Amino acid sequence: MIENFKKASKRIEKKVVQMRRKLHQNPELSFEEKETSLFIKKELKDAGIKFTDGWVKHGIVAEVKGLKGQGNSIALRADMDALPIKETNKKSYRSTNPGIMHACGHDVHTASLIGVAQLLQENRSGFAGTVKFIFQPGEEKLPGGASLMIKEGVFKKNKVKSILGQHVHPPLQVGKVGIRSGVYMASADELYFSIKGKGGHAALPHNCIDPILVASKIITNLQDVISRKKNPLSPSVLSIGKINSVGGATNIIPNEVLLEGTFRSMDEKWRFKAHKEIIKIARRTAAAFGAKCEVEIKVGYPCLINDAKYTAFIKERMIEYMGKSNVVELPQRMSAEDFAYYSQLMPSCFYRLGTGNKSKGIVSPVHTSDFDIDESAFGHSSGLMAYLAIASLSY
Q1: Which of 114, 154, 238, 303 has its CA 20 to 30 A from that of 255?
Q2: pTM, full prediction
């Protein structure tokens, strides 16, 4: 089976590359993936693969049923959306949509999963069970397409035993894959602060309540949440990424300052305790200077947890397919992924596809304007996932 999938993956490699380039040239933002969805549906129809559409507007759930019997059902997921980034690459397949770019590799994920679906459709006489293919919109934007597809009942209508996700990883050399058991990625919450003081002439600060000064104190004091409140064995990050004054000038103290930031954690219990600490510190700091602080915390994606038993099983299958030296143990990441919602419901495994190549200068990380991949990764991306899917049906 392994050799068959390796040969088949190589056979469709050029086609998958072409699909990726087509998607890369035509990126669409979260929850706006209309043309992407039409492209996927055409490829599925041409391969004779059944699907339902309209999930969270543009999402698709396809399926391939093995001809050896009913068996189990498992799911594979790819995200479809792009980012609001202007691409600076000069490749022939660079984005044609100004200010929008597939800078996180979702074009790679989608093309690879179409390839998996086509491989399994061709080989359905060789297995029992059903493989579902979730083409998901809106991974990059809260509340996340995964949570919305779940709310729409995607797993009530498509009952599955487990789910796999694949993501590009530029730090990992092409030809390798990475995996980690347990808590792999952090939760992600958005922080919004409105600090209201009393504006006035900058030369007469004693007549004002300076919200800029108060904001600076809040930013500093919030770090106490990380340095003094949390368990030192549990990683967390609190960063303020945006500061704006409402009005103000070189000689004017404004009435209001707005802050925006992120809070990340690897511990769900501590996460919500930290929310209370963040609110308390911000409000009390402002009050100490005679100002007021309104705090909004938008609860985002939960921690992504790779089921220990299922991940160990997948790792062994990866070693069978790729060879032990090409399967790498990954460190935890403080970035977040809405695949985490699936990991809260069923045995899940989210792994990384090596797409970097230092010798070719392909080293830029995701979410950058010059991100790209070594497309030779497509020589095994679909074949590996197809093999993992078949193996998972008997897990």
Answers
A1: 238
A2: 0.93
